[in-house]
């Protein structure tokens, strides 16, 4: 796991079955403004499928961070980002019911557990 928030993270392939609940792990603890439930956040992130390790999305690949209200995101992010401080890097393991729902739900990631590494760049 890369612990510098200046570079795209690398995610080690997980061992064992996906957890049933949300897992929150701070890789780097930030020292800036703390994100709260109602915050709009500016983040860089990387997302991979838990079972395969395949990357499905990355703001790093697009060369720019994204900015959005936490309330507009998947439940795993709504619950996993608050408490994080600017300058921090956090890993979230998000089960299907807190991501894109059960298999057959219409999204290409429905039914999948997902791993995200999120760098918090700013909070409004």
UniProtKB/TrEMBL annotation:
<keyword id="KW-0697">Rotamase</keyword>
<feature type="domain" description="PPIase FKBP-type">
    <location>
        <begin position="38"/>
        <end position="124"/>
    </location>
</feature>
<keyword id="KW-0413">Isomerase</keyword>
<dbReference type="InterPro" id="IPR046357">
    <property type="entry name" value="PPIase_dom_sf"/>
</dbReference>
<dbReference type="GO" id="GO:0003755">
    <property type="term" value="F:peptidyl-prolyl cis-trans isomerase activity"/>
</dbReference>
<protein>
    <recommendedName>
        <fullName>Peptidyl-prolyl cis-trans isomerase</fullName>
        <ecNumber>5.2.1.8</ecNumber>
    </recommendedName>
</protein>
<dbReference type="Pfam" id="PF00254">
    <property type="entry name" value="FKBP_C"/>
</dbReference>
<dbReference type="InterPro" id="IPR001179">
    <property type="entry name" value="PPIase_FKBP_dom"/>
</dbReference>
<comment type="similarity">
    <text>Belongs to the FKBP-type PPIase family.</text>
</comment>
């Amino acid at each position: 796991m890369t612990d510098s928030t200046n570079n795209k993270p690398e995610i080690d392939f997980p061992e064992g079955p996906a957890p049933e609940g949300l897992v929150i792990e701070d890789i780097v603890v930030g020292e800036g403004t703390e994100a709260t439930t109602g915050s709009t956040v500016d983040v860089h992130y990387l997302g991979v499928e838990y079972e395969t390790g395949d990357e499905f999305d990355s703001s790093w690949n697009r060369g720019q961070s994204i900015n959005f209200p936490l309330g507009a995101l998947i439940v795993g992010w709504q619950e996993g980002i608050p408490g994080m401080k600017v300058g921090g890097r956090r890993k979230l393991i998000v089960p299907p019911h807190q991501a894109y729902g059960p298999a057959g739900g219409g999204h290409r990631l429905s039914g999948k557990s997902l791993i995200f590494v999120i760098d918090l760049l700013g909070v409004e």
